[in-house]
Amino acid sequence: MRQVYISGEMVPEDEAKISIFDTAVTLGDTVTESTRTFKHIPFKLDRHIQRLYKSLKVTRIDAGCGPEEMEQITMNVLEANLPEYGEDEDLWIVHNISRGVSMPGPDPTVRSGGATVMIHTLPMDLTGWARFYEEGCHAVTSMSRIIPSQSLDARIKNRSRMAYTLAEMEVKLVDPQAQGVILDADGNVAENKGGNIFAVSDGVVRTPPAQNSLAGVSRETVLELAETVGVPTQQTDLQPYDLYTADEVFFTSTPYCIMPATKFNGLSVGDGKVGRITKQILTAWSDLVGMDIVKQATKQLEHSN
Ligand SMILES: Cc1ncc(COP(=O)(O)O)c(C=O)c1O
After folding, report:
1. Which of 63, 68, 100, 274 would disulfide-bridge 260, Cβ 3.0–4.6 Å?
2. Ligand 1 centre from 148 Cα, in Å?
3. What pTM value is reported for the model?
4. Among 30, 35, 196, 252, which is best to mutate for testing ligand 1, by the most ligand atoms less than 8 A from CB?
5. Angle between helices 217-228 and 276-289 (to 10 degrees)
6. Which regions of the chain are under pLDDT 70?
């Protein structure tokens, strides 16, 4: 049985409980992080914890401990759970920290205790993305626009996910397999419900700046790896036009790392095949973590069929 950490205690996953009056439930007033492992080693856990503490600071949530202790607790949760995972199986490590219990009333900021700190692990199930490494996915713009950073800064990684979910439902009306591209109110490309977006044109890897999208750890990794393999990068506004006319398009996110897109709103991206630079960066990522990222996912898919 997997073990879950809740505010100082480790409990079996099926006994883990929080109050129905927790602001995680009543307000979605929760900051979050999702880290993955490669060969059971957390990838850039320090960067995830740093982003978590930025989110906590801006949202004025006191986790009750500092980043070093949080990292140690996280490693303890990982170690307690590793016996539950096979040698070839990787895992998510998920942090959810809500403001705590708050009785509905005139002031949602009044709480009866401290923050609720929750850390759990889950198997890294890649079967939903695996075929896109070879085929590429169909990227589709949603009708709904991203919540503007003037309302909720996109850099705060939070659990208020209704807007993202509705946007993803819209793109799935166009194509049940589609992956959403959410625009901002000005029509610039922002992000996906759980990932960042890149376009490659004339040998340059471009992604929107982090004003209208989460500053993804995978996004940062792609920018680093591209430089390492000698591909120039640029953080700049992109419009749908840039994705239509790009040679390559891909998404980035913690579980799948890079998900190529070979179609955008029904039109082929470039020659309609997964691009050379996309593959090059993905290979560099596999080299960085000492395992074949694509193989792991495709193996999972084969075993699930
Ligand atoms: C809205 C959103 N954008 C982008 C990302 C990608 O971030 P990362 O690469 O750190 O997983 C995520 C990750 O969950 C996300 O939720």
Report:
1. 274
2. 16
3. 0.96
4. 196
5. 100
6. none
